[in-house]
Design goal:
Elements: H1 2-23, E1 34-41, E2 46-53, E3 65-68, H2 71-85, E4 95-100, H3 106-116, H4 131-149, E5 158-162, H5 164-175, E6 182-186, H6 196-201, E7 210-217, H7 226-233, E8 240-247, H8 256-267
Length: 272
């Protein structure tokens, strides 16, 4: 009898709590230690969702800004890396800047990224080839805004791109090398613009050394041309510190988390 009474009292206590929970409004999830805002690009006449993950704890002086294309897809992973590595000295402090779109529309996201992350018209079913103007948005509109709002060092900027984003970052490296110090290329879709390999063979940046990390899933097909890009850049005296990683047991769709983890450690080595 005492057991039954105890259970009845316990259940009675749960009912109001459950009712209160049902009455709570459901809100959109927020990322830890991050903020976001919308920026209108005059160059593209397009709104972009800019998400910024801040360093945990106080930071001495200015730190790098890590610009991440495909922010809708990759920013949350990068923000999680900041949170998990805080205080463990696995990466140096930095501001992570995700560049995405404000609409909650995956089909439009795919169309827009295909247009903004490619520099050539691929004659595909969807529009491509607006990468040059997107690069101008990042360099001329977004970077000055971030440098005004946050204590970042423009001499240590990092650019991250995966798939078409990796192709975009390769184009920026070869066409506007001064815009970033470090370029992180995850499964770059060089197949869509193979002429970049010739540009890479002729690339020189000895006066302003660059750091380049290239990763490719170990199960990806050779036509991606990531290994060929590495070979084209792997020349003594061209001012490029180069790292290449074939990620075991990963394919094109599963490689981003591993790529980001290793690439960010390359870009942001722990401070002594």
């Amino acid at each position: 009898m005492r057991l039954i009474l105890t259970l009845m009292l316990a259940l009675a206590g749960l009912v109001p709590a459950a009712a209160a929970q049902r009455g709570q409004p459901v809100q959109r999830a927020e990322l830890w230690n991050s903020e976001q805002f919308v920026v209108h690009s005059k160059i593209l006449d397009r709104d972009f969702l800019i998400q910024v993950a801040k360093p945990f704890g106080p930071v001495k002086g200015k730190v790098p800004a890590v610009y991440i294309t495909d922010g809708n897809m990759l920013f949350s992973t990068a923000a999680g890396i900041i949170a998990s590595s805080a205080g463990k000295e696995s990466t140096a402090p930095a501001y992570y800047v995700g560049i995405g779109y404000p609409e909650q529309d995956r089909e439009r996201w795919y169309r827009d990224r295909s247009q903004h992350l490619t520099h050539v018209d691929m004659k595909a079913a969807i529009a491509t080839g607006n990468g040059a103007r997107f690069a101008q948005f990042v360099i001329k509109e977004l970077q000055p805004l971030i440098e005004k709002r946050y204590p970042v060092d423009p001499a240590r900027n990092v650019l991250v791109g995966y798939s078409f984003g990796g192709l975009f970052a390769t184009n920026v490296l070869l066409r506007h090398p001064e815009a970033f110090e470090t370029y992180l290329l995850g499964s770059p879709s060089i197949w869509a613009q193979p002429k970049l390999l010739e540009m890479a063979k002729a690339f020189e940046s000895a006066a302003s050394p660059k750091r380049v990390f290239i990763a490719i899933g170990g199960e990806e097909k050779p036509f991606m041309l990531a290994k060929e890009l590495h070979a084209a850049l792997d020349r003594p005296g061209n001012g490029v510190t180069l790292r290449y990683w074939s990620v075991p047991d990963e394919n094109h769709m599963t490689v981003p988390p591993a790529f980001l983890s290793r690439a960010l450690r390359f870009a942001l080595p722990p401070q002594p």
